[in-house]
Amino acid sequence: DLGTKRHLFSELDRICKDHTMLATNTSTLPVVDMAMETGRPEKVCGIHFFNPAPMMKLVEIVRPITASDETIDAAKAFAEACGKTAVLVKDQAGFIVNALLFPYLNNAVRLLDQGVATQEDIDDAMKGGCGFPMGPFALLDLVGLDTSLAILDALYEEHRDPNYAAVPRLRRMVSAELFGRKSGKGFYEYKRS
Length: 193
Hints:
By secondary structure, the chain is α/β, with parallel strands linked by helices. Helix content is 48%, strand content 11%. It has a four-stranded mixed beta sheet. Helix 4 crosses helix 7 and helix 6 (136-143) packs across helix 7 (145-159). The two termini are 27 Å apart.
C-alpha cells in the first residue's frame, strides 16, 4: 500500500537521526515515491528480500534515481552480511524477478481457464519439467492471490504490457476472498491452525 508506506517513511524521517538510511522491502512499489517523503532521499533504497526470507538467498537492491552510491553500497553490504546474494536493480515495477515471474503465474491461470490441464498437472509439469520447487498455483497460494493481483496491477500500470493484465479468474478469486494459504483456500485448500 503506497499511501501507507509514504506515511511511514515520513514518520521515520521525523524520528530517525539524520545519518540513518531507510529501506523498504517492496516488490513493485516505486521506491522514489517513499524517498521523496523524506528529507534524505539520497539515503533511501529498496532491499527486496524474497519469501520465505530465511530460506531464499536472493535480495534485490533497488536504486531509486535519488539514492547515493554510498547508500547502495551499504545496502549491498548489509544483504551480503545476512548471507544473501545481492543483485542491483533500477527502480521500476517488478525489478527482475517479479517482472519475469508474474507473467508466468498469470499465464498458468490462463492455461487453467483454457482447460489445457488441471492445476495439479500444471504444478507437476513445472516442477518436473523446469525443476521449480513448487508449481505456479502453489506459489500463488503462498504469495497470496490478493498480493499477486496487486503486483500484476502495479506492473500493468507502469508498463502497459498485456502480459501483466491479470486474468479475470484471479480478480474474481480475490473478490471472493480466496487469498490462498492466508485465508485457508485459494487454488488449493489449507487447514487453518
